[in-house]
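Handout, page 2. Input:
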Amino acid sequence: MVARVCAWALRPTVFCGGGAGRTAALRWLSPAWGGAANSHFSGRFRSSDMNDVLLKDKRNKIMSRGLPKQKPIEGVKQVLVIASGKGGVGKSTTAVNVALALAANDLTKAVGLLDADVYGPSIPKMMNLKGNPDVSSKNLMRPLVNYGIACMSMGFLVEETAPIVWRGLMVMSAIEKLLRQVDWQQLDYLVIDMPPGTGDVQLSISQNIPIAGAVIVSTPQDIALLDARKGAEMFRKVNVPVLGLVQNMSVFQCPKCNHETHIFGTDGVRSLADDLGLDVLGDIPLHLNIREASDSGKPVVVSQPESNMAQAYLKLAAEIVRRLPVSPT
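Output:
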């Protein structure tokens, strides 16, 4: 009920702009909790002691139910999550190019891409997609499609410059709807671009849907490796198979003299992989073209398929598929 009040209060500022598409999207995103929230709001928080009792009782009820039962996403054969412990290591760029590479390596496969980073969605810009998803007669959101990849993101539901000012309950409601109320049709692979860190979103997704494998992205820098280790350990604790690590921005080659410089260190991800008993799935170079292609909405796998950068992503996708379990028919 509290989240319903928060949603009502935040709508004018968070969801600016109009149009039938955005109205439908807001209706789809709105929490479906019943009850007269306003009538109970003041009474519920009249006493901090009463509030503590209510919270404790709610916590006990949740704990008594145990972990949620995993339920597959309708129409999706295998879910692959691309994660990182720290932001800024190129996780979203990797997720986009891996999704495109999965489709390029096998033209018979249908691939989708889900942007689970509610606060900082990047997929719309990287995939050159704008607009509001249509809502089907079954009240399911239809993904936007470009380069043959079906995409869904919170970035389609808000203005590009509008901040998402939500507490945890609202974020979890949005994630649940992005998982369960999207018409993915039939997909062989759904790539999920996870937010950085090891918080509520990661835990909720890991516990609610079966995940075929997780890929951890990190630069070779010591600071990034500390959080990459935490990310790998988190997935292990929730019984999600960690397929391996990706060493991103592994080396910089000067475009003038071709001299190679390891700006973030040398083979730090390989050392971490050895410690964790995992494989390094691929090395992605630090290259100007990767950044420019991502910013322009033309990822290197589709805009420069013969380049060394694109080939690195294609090899990475092949290594991922090789480690995935046999897909259900």
